[in-house]
Amino acid sequence: MSALPPMTELYREHRRRALAIARRILRDADEAEDVVQEVFTRLYSQKVRFDGKAAYTTWLHRILVNSSINSLRAKKRRGRLESPVSAAEDPEETVVGNERHALFLEALEHLSEQHRLVVTLRDLRGYSYPEIARMLGLPEGTVKSALNRGRTRLMARMAQSTALDSTI
After folding, report:
1. What interhelical angle do 56-82 and 29-44 show, nearest 10?
2. Rounded to an integer, what distance in angstroms lies between the CA atom of residue 54 and that of residue 51?
3. Could you tell me if residue 47 is inside a domain?
4. Which tens digits make up the pLDDT trace of 86-123?
5. pLDDT given at position 150
6. Rounded Cα–Cα distance for residues 83 and 107 (Å)
7. Which of 89, 85, 73, 46 minimizes the C-alpha distance to 128?
8. Are residues 162 and 115 in the same domain?
9. In angstroms, rounded to a whole number, what is the distance separating the alpha carbons of residues 151 and 133?
């Protein structure tokens, strides 16, 4: 295991590049600053270990990218939780949206367990392919093909249900 340079030196050398990476992903200077501070704090407190398999600049870049993406996901989740339901919504749109949601959930139940898990983890929870592969103990290629098949079957099932409803 390789040793990192002293933390102050690492911070001084890489702060500007770290901010640029985080800003590019987050598109928010304040949020980028928070992510960079959090990453360097985690490095300083040794909650993240450098394994020496790559250059520490590559390792630091990967940590910054992952932390920025996680921050984006958290922001999206917070936004969904905090967004108020508009009282001015068209009641017809609300009904159609609720019906579409129910149709989606019903179609999701008809997928195989693997397809349902992969679709749920990727499309509803926002996990990356490598994260899903680790969680399910599958190769990344299998995750991608299962997602494609799951989405295809889901859409076919929804189309079939919609066609049946329109004939009634």
Report:
1. 130
2. 8
3. yes
4. 545 677 777 777 788 888 888 888 999 899 889 888 88
5. 92
6. 27
7. 73
8. yes
9. 17
Q: What is the extent of the structural domain holding 156?
A: 91-167
Contact 136, 117 (CB under 8 A): yes
CATH, residue 107: 1.10.10.10
| Helix%, strand%, coil% for the chain, nearest 5 | 75, 0, 25
CA distance 147 to 126: 13
The average pLDDT across 43-64 equals: 73
Contacts made by residues 2-10, CB under 8 angstroms, sequence distance 24+: 2/50, 2/51, 2/52, 2/56, 3/50, 4/43, 4/50, 4/56, 5/56, 7/40, 7/43, 7/44, 10/40, 10/43, 10/56, 10/60
Is 1 within the bounds of a domain? no
Query: 158 near 107, Cβ under 8 Å?
Result: yes
